[in-house]
Amino acid sequence: MKIYRDEDADLRPLLEKTVAVIGYGNQGQAQALNLHDSGVRVIVGSVEDESAARARRDGFTVLPIAEAAARGDVLLLLIPDELQRQVYRDSIRGQLRPGKTLDFAHGFNIRFGWIKPPPKVDVIMVAPRMIGHSVRQRFLGGAGSPAYVAVEQDASGHAWRTALALAKGIGATRAGAIETTFAQETEIDLFMEQATFAAIDRTLLLSFEVLVEEGFDPELVALELYGSYEAAEIFAEMAHTGFFRQGKLHSQTSQYGTFSRGPVVLPDSFKRVMRRRLADIRSGRFAREWRREQEAGYPNFHRYWEDALAHPINAAEEPGRALFGQGR
Ligand code: NDP
Questions:
Q1: What integer is the mean pLDDT of 9-23?
Q2: Which residues pair with 45 in a beta bridge?
Q3: What pLDDT is stored for residue 328 in this prediction?
Q4: Are β-strands 147-153 and 122-128 bridged in parallel, bridged antiparallel, or unpaired?
């Protein structure tokens, strides 16, 4: 794994350029402010809405997206992934000239060919591994937040220099900018969502249903499963102490139970299920399905949400949220 730190990156290539941050939401606001504080000239491209007002309050020049794309040398496409294709087609594609750079914070649209930039521009990715709020707060605190960096298209021969300068400007090289590819970043991200966290979420929900069906108090079950923050702490400890080694923080009964029953609850054959999810992602099958869903007006997506919010776990978690959610 190749990790770039502050000393590996030079901000200067960016200081001669104008960075146009397209979209002033989670990532847009954090990255624009960090780049500004690093001495980079930043303009914001946005539709006239609350985001545009926020960017003006933060002191930025806000322009219609096409105008910002025309003026900017490095364009940071920081609008929701499912909207990027249309905004790119309507307002950005026509403004791309040789020497310009198109930057993404997630590889989806490039990986699945939803956006096909012309060969004359550089296409890079600086993808923070944290939400925008943390990207900003950690920058202000001096620590910075890690990010993936990738180059998909290097028309200028300087795409890596630009990517690393951008990573430095938002504070990512303070913590570590990790080299990857658009394909790897996208595929792992989707796999985590569709296999890893799909399984974890589903396991928690099925645990809730089984325990409640067996007569346990729903509110206590929700508290035990995730409401007390113990589960969150276990994940934090995995990152801090180690995946297995954090187990020593629990009782021996807990350790023995988890070791001995884990493979029975989720046998190795589950890998086949996970591989099928990965195959669906890699073949573009999931991306095609998701695009059909969007074009149809999100009928299944809305139904999933309706079902989710009708589940009894929502009511059961309320006392825990009131008790343990304070101060967050
Ligand atoms: P947000 O949902 O915060 O939205 C970003 C901006 O896009 C907002 O200013 C929003 O305006 C604007 N917008 C929405 N619809 C349109 C439209 N039709 N035309 C023009 N602008 C529009 O996005 P994120 O910051 O969460 O995501 C941006 C990118 O960063 C994505 O590629 C995402 O995958 C990536 N990323 C996000 C992370 C995160 O912290 N969430 C972490 C790492 C990567 P308004 O508010 O008015 O709707």
A1: 96
A2: 22, 63
A3: 65
A4: antiparallel
How far is residue 69's CA from residue 91's CA, in Å, rounded to a whole number?
Answer: 8
Q: Other CB atoms closer than 10 Å to residue 63's CB: what's the count?
A: 19
163 and 60 in contact (C-beta within 8 Å)? Answer: no
| Ordered alpha helix ranges (H), the chain | 12-15, 26-37, 50-57, 65-71, 81-87, 108-111, 132-141, 159-169, 172-175, 182-191, 197-213, 218-222, 230-241, 252-265, 270-282, 285-295, 299-310, 313-316, 318-324
Per residue in 124-141, pLDDT tens?
Answer: 999 999 999 999 999 999
pLDDT score recorded for residue 146: 97
For the CA of 24, the nearest atom of ligand 1: 9
Instruction: Give SS3 for 290.
Output: helix
Q: Find the mean pLDDT for residues 146-166.
A: 98
Query: Which amino acid type is present at position 72?
Result: G
pLDDT digits (tens, 9 = 90+) for 33-53: 999 999 999 999 999 999 999
CA of 27 to the centre of ligand 1 (A): 7
- The residue whose CA has the least distance to atom 36 of ligand 1 is 105
Mutate to test the pocket of ligand 1, among 62, 79, 92, 115 (most ligand atoms within 8 A of CB): 79
